[in-house]
Design goal:
3% of the residues lie in helices and 37% in strands. It has one domain: Single-stranded right-handed beta-helix, Pectin lyase-like (Pectate Lyase C-like, 3 Solenoid), CATH 2.160.20.10. The strands form 6 sheets. The chain has a 12-stranded parallel β-sheet, with helices on one face.
């Protein structure tokens, strides 16, 4: 028999009795855990076996006294039931004095987190270490909430940004602060440095709001030499800032921001700002987004600085100015900046589907290469005019209601 196929066990001898402690994982194996100690042992064994291990987690709450560190490739942590609310992995507090900084730190390729809730951390709920070339992470069908800093961090060694985390996927997740406001200003949803070819889609971001001092970071932010990332079909509700590519001089290259819905109510935080911004981000396309803001910030979309060239800003449905600033250049076309609240199904809940066939919106957009569907994944008109905004309106068809819309 091949020794690699044999499941080894740890044995502790107590007098003459042998007590079974925990199976030692081997490459390509899976294991199911039901306690915090078993979860930690499974992660340690996955690292020791060289990876390619799946850890299924039974329903329950798993309170960590130290973060989990993934150093082997192709490790998966997945809620066994598939219901992300069944498994809660948490730290001791959401505060600067928390004992647990990051709940999960990933320093290897191919990590997957599926169907779990992460909450309460002193730093990040999950950090992907681009400086160790932790490529191809997947975070799917998860809840990330109540972190003292950014919820999902993609880091890099700033002296060598050529080594980075590439080809990540974040989809079908909920990012939120359950109190309706964050604990401090240095917070965000996804904060990615030097990340390339990531996809962020079908997620909900809620209440990333700074309570004092300064503005919070974006709900979704790719910057500091990031490039060619796709951000689509996300719902962003009551966050200080929506989606950003680049920040001041620390720019971004290329990428697409499309089919997102962004809503911000009045009197939700004192630092409410722009819906979408690109800074020093050449070749970036921002199209078919719907943005409705009821606070006082004047701009819905901004493209800034001379490093932003050949930008495309098209087919966006907004109720505030689209503004070019600080020497940026690009093409603005077929945007509608006069959106009315009455045009949407339920904007107070972030539902910016069209309530009716608004003449200035329906069939008034332009065809764009790669634009094949809308916020719901419904097909856009091919070979003819498309609707402006994230929603392609179909007469007689009730719009799909967005998920996770408990707004606090």
């Amino acid at each position: 028999m091949n020794a690699d196929c044999i499941e080894l066990v740890r044995i502790r001898f107590v007098g003459t009795l042998a007590v079974l402690l925990w199976p030692v994982l081997v490459h390509g194996q899976s294991v199911t855990v039901s306690s915090t100690s078993e979860l930690r042992a499974a992660v340690n064994d996955a690292n020791g076996s060289g990876g390619n291990v799946t850890i299924f987690v039974e329903a329950g709450t798993y309170t960590l006294d130290d973060g989990l560190y993934i150093s082997a490739p192709e490790v998966t942590i997945a809620g066994k039931s598939g219901n992300r609310e069944d498994v809660v992995i948490q730290g001791d507090a959401m505060s600067a004095s928390a004992s647990v900084g990051n709940l999960i730190t990933v320093a290897a390729k191919g990590f997957t987190l599926d169907a779990v809730t992460l909450q309460r951390s002193g730093n990040h709920l999950i950090q992907i270490r681009g400086e160790t070339n932790a490529d191809s992470p997947v975070v799917r069908n998860c809840i990330l909430r109540d972190a003292y800093e950014q919820m999902l961090k993609v880091s890099v060694n700033t002296s060598n940004t050529s080594v980075s985390s590439d080809n990540g996927i974040v989809e079908n997740c909920l990012f939120e602060y359950t109190a309706g406001i964050g604990p401090q200003y240095y917070i965000g949803g996804i904060d990615a440095h030097s990340a390339k070819n990531w996809i962020v889609r079908n997620n909900v971001f809620k209440s990333i709001i700074s309570p004092n001092t300064s503005i919070a970071e974006y709900a979704i932010h790719f910057w500091n030499d990031s490039g060619d990332n796709l951000v689509e079909r996300n719902l962003i509700i009551n966050c200080d800032r929506g989606i950003g590519f680049g920040l001041n001089s620390r720019g971004n290259t290329g990428g697409i921001i499309r089919n997102n819905m962004i809503y911000h109510a009045d009197n939700r935080g004192q630092f409410a700002d722009v819906g979408i911004a690109i800074h020093n981000s050449p070749g970036t396309a921002v199209y078919n987004n719907s943005i409705f803001m009821e606070h006082g910030y004047p701009n819905s979309i901004e493209y800034r600085f001379s490093g932003t060239s050949n930008a495309l800003i098209a087919n966006n449905l907004v109720n505030a100015t689209i503004r070019r600033l600080d020497g940026a250049s690009g093409t603005e076309s077929t945007n509608n900046t006069g959106a009315s609240k009455a045009w949407f199904v339920n904007p107070d809940a972030g539902d910016l589907h069209l309530a009716e066939a608004v003449p200035s919106v329906v069939d008034n957009g332009e065809a764009i290469t790669g634009l094949t569907d809308d916020y719901d994944g419904d097909q856009r008109m091919q070979g003819g005019p498309v609707d402006i905004g994230a929603d392609e309106y179909f007469a007689g068809v009730r719009p799909n209601a967005p998920e996770d819309l408990t707004v606090q």
